[in-house]
Specification:
3 domains; 14 helices; homodimer; Rossmann fold; DNA-binding; alpha/beta; 16% strand; six-stranded mixed sheet; six-stranded parallel sheet
DNA sequence: CCAGACTACGAAAACGGTTTCGTGTTGATA
DNA sequence: TATCAACACGAAACCGTTTTCGTAGTCTGG
């Protein structure tokens, strides 16, 4: 076992000072050609690499980014994460992930830990519980301490910071219109409880489309599936109680469940009932019929978030200069597959 | 913006030395009650937290774990990751993820970077390219430098280190037997190229079952799907060329594709063709019919891997004491759903 | 009254780098 | 030959902790 070699060891071995070694390895012209060559050769031989921790301490920057997400076994979040990781890596940053597991407390604890020097800035999507509680002091806290923060997807209007969101309202509008163009008359919505602000935006787009296009908006055609459990029976009951010929779902799991139950009940998809879901994951691609879906371009979101964060990190803002924040919108796209029909 | 407060600042403010502050905060009995109370109160007021980086430098341990995986948008890996993250967090460790993207070079570069002080040990699953090249010097390298290494799932026999694997051979054997018990005669296997050693193990279990149970093992009934692209047509051709009444697939994507194509061709699942896949993900749960599948218990694997690593980290091995390595086996379980029939 | 023992604290080294600021030596110039 | 710049290098501070060791001052006992 050979420990990593340090400047000090090189210095001792070559009988020069630590400063000389440091400068020589940076090819400083304060050092003579001879000495530099000798030192560089030696360093190469022993595969010298500066210690990241020492650098972090000295430079007061870790080149680490903290990513806090509600869940990791989740197509959308992993997709975003991939984008973050790719971009960050290209720029020489590493990524530390903490999973809040939709819990407010875990989110708070994790962020506090990371804020004690482990990272230079945060990229996060807030937990469900945090949205419910409406308590964002931990976000304010880290920002006060000078950490740049980029929120994505589940963002908080009250917090001023950089944000990356999808055009949820718009694309839900488009999806709903697509149903109407198909000739569908009664479009339903299957969504989650509304403290998820993205769900709320999607619902708005859905309603606006119906109203603007002169179709009926019937509140009874909106099914709010409770947070955990009983989705199956919930959707089943919805079929029994209401009548509809198209369903917009806020995620792909709901969408395939709707298709499954519809087919069990003898409806044909898309002839009798059209379905569109959010999230272009594996389910959408391999369900039968394949699912028309809204691609959220999570990877792009991640890239953009990382880019915004790193820009803030590297353009250290001047003393009392006015801080400005941006909100980037990633355009979702509708991917047509076989759970919807042709335009009439 | 208030930067985090340091010992030095507290010391100056309270007109004591840095050492006194440090000791007082550790409740050392070298310091008088009065002084301690004063310092502790002040520290609490300003929410003092020791700087992780400084601690890392001092203690020569970061309390960070490096996780290197081939892909993150992948059910199994995220599941394992969740297990790692959970356990690590409980033990006060953070997790830095690097995605090799199945590339040898990225794997090497990422590990070198992490090894320069960012982490205390590695948990990894090697990339496809690395398995192909059969070049593991980067693993040896980090071990030589004293980093504990835990491999999971895609492990390397030539490397001596802690490992966590699934009983791939065994469970493939069981799955194959299940087909035979159902009364199936010609069991096919759909797999990936064999440099994935897990695929190889699964294939072995499959073959052993056929031979031991007195069924035919016909090499023509094994379909090797190329690494990227053309799965669809590949499977389609397989149906045209061969005849079989059961298919074991090494992942759930292959499994649902097989079911889809089978159904298109007019076969009934499971009456005409039974299907079992590996990976108990969303697809298995929501395909139609729902897929009988092999649950890999990734979360458990992650937990065990993290536990093994942290144990190594915390029981710093004595000088020249003999190092011992373990291989933990996680038992997979067969989850019966509707793509297989009843025992005859 | 003084040696010895506590008590309560501070100085300094160490972790591994970077960087500023000297400073001794050399060579050129007046 | 005296002066000065340029060259090549080293000392030391600093980043924020922990920890060892030293030491004033007070107290106790003989």
């Amino acid at each position: 076992m050979k420990r990593k070699i340090t400047l000090k060891q090189i210095a001792r071995e070559l009988e020069v000072s630590i400063s000389t070694v440091s400068k020589a390895l940076k090819d400083s012209d304060e050092i003579s050609k001879d000495t530099k060559q000798k030192i560089q050769a030696f360093a190469k031989l022993y595969n010298y690499r500066p210690n990241n921790i020492a650098l972090s301490l000295k430079n007061r920057r870790t080149k680490n980014i903290g990513v806090v997400i509600p869940d990791i076994v989740h197509h959308f979040f992993t997709t975003v994460f991939r984008g973050i990781e790719k971009y960050a890596n290209e720029r020489g940053y590493n990524v530390i992930v903490c999973v809040s597991d939709e819990s407010y407390d875990k989110e708070v604890v994790n962020m506090e830990l990371l804020a004690n020097g482990s990272i230079d800035g945060f990229i996060m999507s807030v937990s469900a519980e945090t949205q419910q509680k409406n308590d964002f002091h931990h976000l304010r806290e880290v920002m006060d301490q000078g950490f740049p923060l980029v929120l994505f997807d589940r963002v908080i209007d009250e917090i001023e910071c950089d944000k990356v969101v999808m055009n949820d309202e718009e694309i839900a509008y488009e999806a709903t219109c697509k149903f109407l163009e198909e000739g569908k008359k009664k479009v339903a919505l299957v969504t989650t409880e509304s403290y998820f602000n993205v769900s709320e935006k999607r619902a708005e787009g859905y309603r606006r489309a119906l109203v603007e296009q002169g179709a009926d908006y019937d509140p009874k055609l909106t099914l709010v599936v409770p947070f955990r459990g009983g989705e199956e029976s919930c959707i089943d009951a919805f079929f029994e109680e209401e009548e509809f010929d198209a369903v917009l779902c806020v995620n792909e799991v709901f969408a395939v469940q709707v298709m499954g139950i519809a087919q069990e009940k003898g409806y044909r998809v898309p002839e009798d009932i059209s379905v569109i879901g959010f999230t272009n994951g594996l389910l959408s691609r391999y369900s039968s019929p394949t699912l028309t879906t809204i691609a959220q371009h999570g990877e792009r979101m991640g890239e953009v978030a990382a880019e915004m964060l790193i820009e803030k990190l590297e353009n250290e803002i001047g003393f009392e200069e006015e801080e400005t924040y941006r909100t980037e919108i990633i355009e979702a796209t509708l991917i047509e597959r076989n759970s919807t029909g042709k335009k009439k």
